[in-house]
Amino acid sequence: MGTESKMQHVSETGIKTGLKTEIETEIETGIETGIETGIETGIKTEIKTGIETGIKMEIQTEIQIQDLSFSYEKHSRKKGRAEIVKTDEKESHMVLEHVSFSIQQGEKVGIIGSNGVGKSTLLKLMVGIEPVSIGKIHILGDEVTQENLARIRQEAGYVFQDSESQLFMSTIYDDVAFAPINYGLDQEEVERRTMDALERVRIAHLAKKKIYQLSGGEKKLASIATVLSMEPKILLLDEPSVALDPQNRRNLIRVLNDLSMTKVIASHDLDFIYDTCDRTVILDHGTIAADGNTKELLRNKELLERNGLELPLSFSR
Ligand SMILES: Nc1ncnc2c1ncn2[C@@H]1O[C@H](COP(=O)(O)OP(=O)(O)OP(=O)(O)O)[C@@H](O)[C@H]1O
Ligand SMILES: [Mg+2]
Known about the structure:
About 45% of the residues lie in helices and about 20% in strands. By secondary structure, the chain is an alpha/beta fold. Adenosine-5'-triphosphate (ATP) binds near residues 115 and 120.
Protein backbone atom coordinates (compact mmCIF):
# COMPACT_ATOMS: atom_id res chain seq x y z
CA MET A 1 0.00 0.00 0.00
CA GLY A 2 1.30 3.45 -0.99
CA THR A 3 1.60 6.26 1.51
CA GLU A 4 -1.46 8.02 0.06
CA SER A 5 -3.72 5.01 0.27
CA LYS A 6 -2.39 4.26 3.76
CA MET A 7 -3.40 7.78 4.85
CA GLN A 8 -6.82 7.34 3.23
CA HIS A 9 -7.27 4.05 5.07
CA VAL A 10 -6.27 5.66 8.39
CA SER A 11 -8.62 8.60 7.90
CA GLU A 12 -11.50 6.29 6.85
CA THR A 13 -10.89 4.16 9.96
CA GLY A 14 -10.78 7.35 12.05
CA ILE A 15 -14.06 8.59 10.64
CA LYS A 16 -15.69 5.19 11.09
CA THR A 17 -14.46 4.87 14.69
CA GLY A 18 -15.54 8.42 15.40
CA LEU A 19 -18.98 7.83 13.92
CA LYS A 20 -19.34 4.52 15.78
CA THR A 21 -18.44 6.15 19.07
CA GLU A 22 -20.82 9.00 18.40
CA ILE A 23 -23.65 6.67 17.43
CA GLU A 24 -22.99 4.46 20.46
CA THR A 25 -22.93 7.51 22.75
CA GLU A 26 -26.12 8.83 21.12
CA ILE A 27 -27.85 5.48 21.57
CA GLU A 28 -26.65 5.15 25.17
CA THR A 29 -27.72 8.72 25.99
CA GLY A 30 -31.03 8.10 24.23
CA ILE A 31 -31.63 4.93 26.19
CA GLU A 32 -30.62 6.59 29.44
CA THR A 33 -32.89 9.60 28.78
CA GLY A 34 -35.65 7.22 27.76
CA ILE A 35 -35.26 5.22 30.95
CA GLU A 36 -35.08 8.37 33.07
CA THR A 37 -38.17 9.86 31.42
CA GLY A 38 -39.93 6.52 31.77
CA ILE A 39 -39.09 6.30 35.44
CA GLU A 40 -40.09 9.92 36.02
CA THR A 41 -43.39 9.47 34.20
CA GLY A 42 -43.99 6.26 36.11
CA ILE A 43 -43.29 7.92 39.44
CA LYS A 44 -45.43 10.92 38.48
CA THR A 45 -48.34 8.66 37.50
CA GLU A 46 -47.94 6.62 40.69
CA ILE A 47 -47.96 9.76 42.83
CA LYS A 48 -50.95 11.21 40.96
CA THR A 49 -52.93 7.96 41.31
CA GLY A 50 -51.92 7.78 44.98
CA ILE A 51 -53.12 11.30 45.64
CA GLU A 52 -56.36 10.77 43.71
CA THR A 53 -57.09 7.51 45.55
CA GLY A 54 -56.26 9.23 48.85
CA ILE A 55 -58.64 12.08 48.09
CA LYS A 56 -61.35 9.64 47.02
CA MET A 57 -60.93 7.62 50.23
CA GLU A 58 -61.03 10.82 52.25
CA ILE A 59 -64.29 11.86 50.58
CA GLN A 60 -65.85 8.46 51.03
CA THR A 61 -65.12 8.36 54.76
CA GLU A 62 -68.08 10.21 56.20
CA ILE A 63 -67.60 9.48 59.89
CA GLN A 64 -64.17 9.05 61.38
CA ILE A 65 -63.68 8.37 65.06
CA GLN A 66 -60.11 8.40 66.31
CA ASP A 67 -59.08 7.23 69.77
CA LEU A 68 -62.21 8.63 71.37
CA SER A 69 -62.54 8.49 75.16
CA PHE A 70 -65.29 10.12 77.16
CA SER A 71 -66.49 10.60 80.70
CA TYR A 72 -69.46 12.65 81.93
CA GLU A 73 -67.24 13.98 84.70
CA LYS A 74 -65.88 17.49 84.55
CA HIS A 75 -63.21 18.26 81.98
CA SER A 76 -60.24 20.56 82.24
CA ARG A 77 -57.90 21.93 79.61
CA LYS A 78 -54.22 21.36 80.16
CA LYS A 79 -51.72 22.53 77.60
CA GLY A 80 -54.50 22.88 75.03
CA ARG A 81 -55.63 19.29 75.51
CA ALA A 82 -58.65 18.28 77.52
CA GLU A 83 -58.23 15.84 80.33
CA ILE A 84 -60.67 14.30 82.71
CA VAL A 85 -60.55 15.71 86.22
CA LYS A 86 -60.61 12.71 88.49
CA THR A 87 -61.76 14.05 91.81
CA ASP A 88 -62.21 10.57 93.18
CA GLU A 89 -60.61 7.70 91.27
CA LYS A 90 -63.32 5.25 92.36
CA GLU A 91 -66.14 7.50 91.18
CA SER A 92 -64.58 8.35 87.82
CA HIS A 93 -66.26 6.38 85.08
CA MET A 94 -65.08 6.32 81.49
CA VAL A 95 -68.12 5.77 79.27
CA LEU A 96 -65.99 5.33 76.12
CA GLU A 97 -62.34 4.31 76.01
CA HIS A 98 -60.03 4.54 72.98
CA VAL A 99 -62.80 3.96 70.45
CA SER A 100 -61.69 4.15 66.80
CA PHE A 101 -63.63 3.27 63.67
CA SER A 102 -64.80 4.89 60.48
CA ILE A 103 -67.94 4.75 58.39
CA GLN A 104 -67.95 5.11 54.63
CA GLN A 105 -70.51 6.87 52.48
CA GLY A 106 -73.74 4.87 52.19
CA GLU A 107 -72.91 2.36 54.92
CA LYS A 108 -75.71 1.27 57.25
CA VAL A 109 -74.23 0.61 60.66
CA GLY A 110 -75.98 -0.79 63.71
CA ILE A 111 -74.59 0.05 67.16
CA ILE A 112 -75.64 -2.52 69.73
CA GLY A 113 -74.74 -3.39 73.31
CA SER A 114 -76.40 -3.75 76.68
CA ASN A 115 -77.84 -0.87 78.75
CA GLY A 116 -75.33 1.83 79.63
CA VAL A 117 -72.47 0.71 77.33
CA GLY A 118 -72.37 4.13 75.67
CA LYS A 119 -74.42 3.82 72.46
CA SER A 120 -76.37 7.05 72.96
CA THR A 121 -73.27 8.84 74.23
CA LEU A 122 -71.38 7.87 71.06
CA LEU A 123 -74.15 9.28 68.84
CA LYS A 124 -74.40 12.46 70.94
CA LEU A 125 -70.65 13.02 70.61
CA MET A 126 -70.95 12.71 66.82
CA VAL A 127 -73.24 15.76 66.67
CA GLY A 128 -71.65 17.67 69.54
CA ILE A 129 -74.49 17.29 72.05
CA GLU A 130 -71.75 16.13 74.40
CA PRO A 131 -68.32 17.75 73.88
CA VAL A 132 -65.49 15.71 72.39
CA SER A 133 -62.52 16.22 74.69
CA ILE A 134 -60.25 13.19 74.26
CA GLY A 135 -59.74 11.91 70.73
CA LYS A 136 -61.29 13.23 67.53
CA ILE A 137 -64.44 12.83 65.49
CA HIS A 138 -64.71 14.01 61.89
CA ILE A 139 -68.07 14.22 60.13
CA LEU A 140 -67.83 14.68 56.36
CA GLY A 141 -64.26 15.91 56.84
CA ASP A 142 -65.14 18.51 59.49
CA GLU A 143 -63.87 17.98 63.00
CA VAL A 144 -66.66 18.00 65.57
CA THR A 145 -65.88 21.24 67.39
CA GLN A 146 -68.06 24.10 68.61
CA GLU A 147 -67.27 26.16 65.49
CA ASN A 148 -68.34 23.41 63.07
CA LEU A 149 -71.52 22.33 64.84
CA ALA A 150 -74.03 24.26 62.72
CA ARG A 151 -72.63 22.77 59.50
CA ILE A 152 -72.36 19.27 60.95
CA ARG A 153 -75.91 19.29 62.28
CA GLN A 154 -77.17 20.41 58.89
CA GLU A 155 -75.57 17.36 57.27
CA ALA A 156 -76.07 14.82 60.05
CA GLY A 157 -79.60 14.43 61.37
CA TYR A 158 -79.84 12.96 64.86
CA VAL A 159 -82.92 11.36 66.41
CA PHE A 160 -82.81 11.27 70.23
CA GLN A 161 -83.59 8.08 72.12
CA ASP A 162 -85.98 10.19 74.16
CA SER A 163 -88.53 11.87 71.85
CA GLU A 164 -89.30 14.58 74.42
CA SER A 165 -85.81 16.03 73.80
CA GLN A 166 -86.50 16.29 70.06
CA LEU A 167 -89.88 17.99 70.03
CA PHE A 168 -90.15 21.51 71.34
CA MET A 169 -92.64 23.35 69.12
CA SER A 170 -96.38 23.27 69.73
CA THR A 171 -97.52 21.13 66.75
CA ILE A 172 -95.98 18.26 64.80
CA TYR A 173 -95.98 20.37 61.62
CA ASP A 174 -94.05 23.20 63.31
CA ASP A 175 -91.47 20.78 64.69
CA VAL A 176 -90.90 19.05 61.35
CA ALA A 177 -90.76 22.41 59.50
CA PHE A 178 -88.40 23.94 62.08
CA ALA A 179 -85.06 22.85 60.58
CA PRO A 180 -85.95 23.61 56.92
CA ILE A 181 -87.19 27.10 57.98
CA ASN A 182 -84.01 27.62 60.00
CA TYR A 183 -81.85 26.79 57.01
CA GLY A 184 -83.57 29.59 55.09
CA LEU A 185 -85.50 27.49 52.57
CA ASP A 186 -88.42 29.21 50.88
CA GLN A 187 -91.96 28.56 52.08
CA GLU A 188 -92.88 26.22 49.22
CA GLU A 189 -89.79 24.04 49.78
CA VAL A 190 -90.38 24.00 53.53
CA GLU A 191 -93.93 22.81 52.97
CA ARG A 192 -92.87 20.17 50.45
CA ARG A 193 -90.19 18.77 52.74
CA THR A 194 -92.40 18.86 55.82
CA MET A 195 -95.31 17.06 54.21
CA ASP A 196 -92.99 14.58 52.48
CA ALA A 197 -91.32 13.69 55.81
CA LEU A 198 -94.69 13.33 57.57
CA GLU A 199 -96.07 11.18 54.77
CA ARG A 200 -93.01 8.92 54.83
CA VAL A 201 -93.61 8.05 58.48
CA ARG A 202 -97.37 8.00 57.85
CA ILE A 203 -98.44 10.72 60.26
CA ALA A 204 -99.43 13.45 57.77
CA HIS A 205 -102.96 13.32 59.20
CA LEU A 206 -101.53 14.35 62.61
CA ALA A 207 -99.71 17.43 61.25
CA LYS A 208 -101.71 19.99 63.22
CA LYS A 209 -101.90 17.95 66.42
CA LYS A 210 -100.34 19.34 69.61
CA ILE A 211 -97.21 17.54 70.73
CA TYR A 212 -98.56 16.92 74.23
CA GLN A 213 -101.55 15.11 72.71
CA LEU A 214 -99.41 12.47 70.98
CA SER A 215 -98.86 8.86 72.00
CA GLY A 216 -95.31 7.59 72.59
CA GLY A 217 -95.15 5.92 69.17
CA GLU A 218 -96.52 9.02 67.42
CA LYS A 219 -93.84 11.11 69.13
CA LYS A 220 -91.17 8.74 67.89
CA LEU A 221 -92.45 8.99 64.31
CA ALA A 222 -92.65 12.79 64.62
CA SER A 223 -89.02 12.86 65.88
CA ILE A 224 -87.89 10.83 62.88
CA ALA A 225 -89.81 13.18 60.56
CA THR A 226 -88.03 16.24 62.06
CA VAL A 227 -84.77 14.74 60.84
CA LEU A 228 -86.01 13.45 57.46
CA SER A 229 -87.24 16.98 56.56
CA MET A 230 -83.61 18.16 56.63
CA GLU A 231 -82.74 15.60 53.91
CA PRO A 232 -79.37 15.06 55.65
CA LYS A 233 -76.38 13.18 54.21
CA ILE A 234 -76.11 11.14 57.41
CA LEU A 235 -78.88 9.77 59.63
CA LEU A 236 -78.07 8.99 63.26
CA LEU A 237 -80.98 7.20 64.91
CA ASP A 238 -81.11 6.29 68.58
CA GLU A 239 -83.60 3.48 69.29
CA PRO A 240 -85.84 4.42 66.34
CA SER A 241 -88.17 1.42 66.72
CA VAL A 242 -88.96 1.95 70.40
CA ALA A 243 -92.71 2.36 71.05
CA LEU A 244 -93.70 1.56 67.46
CA ASP A 245 -96.46 -0.96 66.73
CA PRO A 246 -95.60 -3.78 64.29
CA GLN A 247 -97.08 -1.94 61.27
CA ASN A 248 -95.27 1.33 61.92
CA ARG A 249 -92.08 -0.58 62.72
CA ARG A 250 -92.31 -2.45 59.40
CA ASN A 251 -93.02 0.81 57.57
CA LEU A 252 -90.01 2.49 59.20
CA ILE A 253 -87.76 -0.39 58.07
CA ARG A 254 -89.05 0.13 54.53
CA VAL A 255 -88.59 3.92 54.73
CA LEU A 256 -85.01 3.57 55.99
CA ASN A 257 -84.13 0.94 53.42
CA ASP A 258 -85.42 3.24 50.67
CA LEU A 259 -83.03 6.02 51.78
CA SER A 260 -79.54 5.70 50.34
CA MET A 261 -77.69 8.01 52.75
CA THR A 262 -75.27 6.85 55.45
CA LYS A 263 -77.11 5.55 58.53
CA VAL A 264 -76.03 4.78 62.07
CA ILE A 265 -78.68 3.11 64.20
CA ALA A 266 -78.28 2.43 67.91
CA SER A 267 -80.80 -0.15 69.08
CA HIS A 268 -81.67 -3.06 71.32
CA ASP A 269 -84.06 -4.26 68.64
CA LEU A 270 -81.67 -6.68 66.96
CA ASP A 271 -84.30 -7.78 64.45
CA PHE A 272 -84.60 -4.12 63.38
CA ILE A 273 -80.80 -3.88 63.06
CA TYR A 274 -80.78 -7.13 61.09
CA ASP A 275 -83.34 -5.71 58.64
CA THR A 276 -81.74 -2.28 58.22
CA CYS A 277 -77.94 -2.52 58.70
CA ASP A 278 -75.18 -4.25 56.70
CA ARG A 279 -72.59 -3.69 59.39
CA THR A 280 -72.83 -3.92 63.17
CA VAL A 281 -70.61 -2.62 65.93
CA ILE A 282 -70.98 -4.22 69.37
CA LEU A 283 -70.04 -1.93 72.27
CA ASP A 284 -69.03 -3.38 75.60
CA HIS A 285 -68.02 -1.22 78.56
CA GLY A 286 -67.04 1.65 76.30
CA THR A 287 -64.91 -0.37 73.89
CA ILE A 288 -65.62 -2.11 70.59
CA ALA A 289 -66.18 -5.81 71.26
CA ALA A 290 -66.89 -6.66 67.60
CA ASP A 291 -67.30 -4.86 64.29
CA GLY A 292 -68.39 -6.72 61.20
CA ASN A 293 -71.06 -8.08 58.92
CA THR A 294 -74.49 -7.87 60.59
CA LYS A 295 -75.65 -11.26 59.32
CA GLU A 296 -72.58 -12.96 60.78
CA LEU A 297 -72.50 -11.12 64.11
CA LEU A 298 -76.22 -11.38 64.85
CA ARG A 299 -76.20 -15.14 64.25
CA ASN A 300 -73.31 -15.61 66.70
CA LYS A 301 -75.15 -16.63 69.87
CA GLU A 302 -72.02 -16.99 71.94
CA LEU A 303 -70.67 -13.53 70.96
CA LEU A 304 -74.03 -11.89 71.65
CA GLU A 305 -74.45 -13.57 75.04
CA ARG A 306 -70.92 -12.64 76.03
CA ASN A 307 -71.96 -9.03 75.46
CA GLY A 308 -75.23 -9.20 77.38
CA LEU A 309 -77.34 -9.63 74.23
CA GLU A 310 -79.51 -12.37 72.77
CA LEU A 311 -80.11 -13.71 69.28
CA PRO A 312 -82.66 -11.67 67.29
CA LEU A 313 -86.14 -13.01 67.98
CA SER A 314 -86.56 -14.25 64.42
CA PHE A 315 -83.66 -16.72 64.93
CA SER A 316 -84.49 -17.83 68.43
CA ARG A 317 -88.05 -18.99 67.75
N1 LIG B 1 -76.01 13.08 81.22
C1 LIG B 1 -75.35 12.12 81.86
N2 LIG B 1 -74.62 12.39 82.98
C2 LIG B 1 -73.92 11.44 83.60
N3 LIG B 1 -73.87 10.15 83.21
C3 LIG B 1 -74.57 9.82 82.11
C4 LIG B 1 -75.35 10.77 81.38
N4 LIG B 1 -75.92 10.14 80.33
C5 LIG B 1 -75.54 8.86 80.40
N5 LIG B 1 -74.73 8.65 81.46
C6 LIG B 1 -74.06 7.40 81.83
O1 LIG B 1 -73.21 7.03 80.76
C7 LIG B 1 -73.27 5.65 80.52
C8 LIG B 1 -73.63 5.41 79.06
O2 LIG B 1 -74.93 5.88 78.83
P1 LIG B 1 -75.63 5.79 77.42
O3 LIG B 1 -76.92 6.50 77.53
O4 LIG B 1 -74.68 6.23 76.38
O5 LIG B 1 -75.82 4.21 77.28
P2 LIG B 1 -76.63 3.38 76.20
O6 LIG B 1 -75.71 2.34 75.68
O7 LIG B 1 -77.26 4.28 75.23
O8 LIG B 1 -77.72 2.68 77.12
P3 LIG B 1 -79.25 2.27 76.81
O9 LIG B 1 -79.20 0.96 76.11
O10 LIG B 1 -79.86 2.15 78.14
O11 LIG B 1 -79.88 3.35 75.98
C9 LIG B 1 -74.24 5.07 81.53
O12 LIG B 1 -73.49 4.56 82.61
C10 LIG B 1 -75.04 6.26 81.97
O13 LIG B 1 -75.46 6.12 83.29
MG1 LIG C 1 -79.15 4.71 74.73
